[in-house]
Design goal:
With 154 residues, this protein is an alpha+beta fold. The protein has helices at residues 9-26, 52-72, 111-138, 146-153; strands at residues 30-35, 40-45, 80-84, 89-95, 99-105.
Length: 154
């Protein structure tokens, strides 16, 4: 299975609460759960006027390029990617090989603190995503009666 999976309202609330706690502890500005296709699934914090769909897509593309660099260096993957700007910085951390924790922070905090708490929150997010995956694996497949299937095909 690829992607994040089917998140329930409870899963979504748990993820959002983790992001809130992460931002409070790390003093980062914004953080989000993004799949590697660039789809934004959860986010919290202040982004000002940033276009989140573009930011998510660019972060996913940047991480995909870094993944290819890692393969060429004989690594299976780099688990984190950090870009340092003059005033704003971004840290992207891999989750379950199909999701990213994307974090934006400024001069109010430092990379060490953000990375420390990012490692903790990625472990907790991985737990939620694994529970989603396990739940989906035990679900019965949707069975359609023959008439519905015939109508859908025609």
């Amino acid at each position: 299975m690829t992607g994040i999976g089917m998140l329930t309202a409870e899963d979504q609330m748990a993820i959002e609460q983790l992001l809130i706690d992460f931002l409070r502890k790390s003093e980062a500005q914004w953080s989000a759960l993004v799949d590697k296709g660039g789809n934004l699934f959860a986010q919290y914090g202040d982004t000002g006027s940033l276009d989140l769909s573009i930011l998510s897509a660019l972060a996913a593309g940047s991480f995909a390029a870094t993944h290819e660099l890692a393969k060429r260096l004989g690594e299976s993957e780099f688990s984190a990617l950090y870009h340092e700007g003059q005033g704003m910085h971004i840290l992207m951390s891999a989750l379950h090989h199909e999701c990213l924790l994307v974090t934006i922070f400024g001069e109010k905090t430092n990379i060490g603190l953000v990375r420390f708490y990012a490692q903790q929150v990625t472990t907790m997010l991985n737990g939620i995503l694994q529970a989603v995956r396990d739940k989906e694996a035990t679900m019965d497949p949707l069975l359609l009666d023959g008439d519905f299937l015939d109508d859908a095909i025609s």
